[in-house]
Design a protein that fits this description.
The protein is of the alpha+beta class. It is 39% helix and 17% strand. It contains five helices and eight strands. Strand 4 and strand 5 form a beta hairpin. The longest helix is centred in the first third of the chain and has 17 residues. The protein is elongated. 15% of the residues are buried.
Length: 171
């Protein structure tokens, strides 16, 4: 069976999944794909089944069914986090990095808004001067503390399971 989605192609064999069978399936499908004019991206392809892959900055774990930060992303966060007196540019970069981490950090959405608000207020006050200095409020510092304490163990489940409560309203 062959399934194609946008630029992704998945094949399924009805044999026992072994490395030998995966390689055989790939070797039998490759000529057809090339005959159809499809170019195969060897660097992006994963021909050996794996329980953990890195894809678009995500580390996907199929056993624990979680998404986590890459080590590079963790290091970037740690490098940006400790500052309390900073420029608006540095705060903007930090907020951008944190927002890019949100799909991988389960409760991250609750711990970046004060930083973003502080950035927007400072930009209005300084009339768009990104090089202006600012001092972080205590709530913004609390958010930074949360990220520092949680960035190493951060993950997000791929599925949160079935809902336990269903609410219906008459709108």
């Amino acid at each position: 069976m062959v399934i194609s989605m946008l630029d992704t192609l998945m094949t399924r064999t009805f044999r026992v999944v072994t490395l030998k069978n995966v390689c055989f399936t790939f070797q039998t499908h490759r000529p057809f794909l090339q005959d159809w004019g499809l170019s195969l991206m060897w660097k992006k392809s994963c021909f050996i089944p794996a329980q953990q892959i890195t894809f678009l900055g995500f580390v996907l774990h199929s056993v624990s069914m979680t998404i986590a930060l890459t080590e590079d992303k963790k290091a970037n966060c740690k490098a940006l986090l400790p500052k309390t007196n900073t420029t608006i540019t540095e705060l903007t970069q930090l907020v951008g990095t944190l927002v890019s981490c949100l799909p991988r950090v389960q409760f991250g959405k609750f711990h970046y808004r004060n930083l973003e608000i502080k950035k927007n207020v400072a930009l209005r006050k300084r009339k768009g001067n990104y090089e202006a200095q600012l001092t972080l409020s205590s709530s913004a510092k609390d958010e930074l503390t949360w990220w520092i304490e949680n960035v190493d163990k951060a993950f997000n489940p791929i599925s949160h399971g079935n809902p336990t409560i269903e609410l219906r309203t008459d709108a």
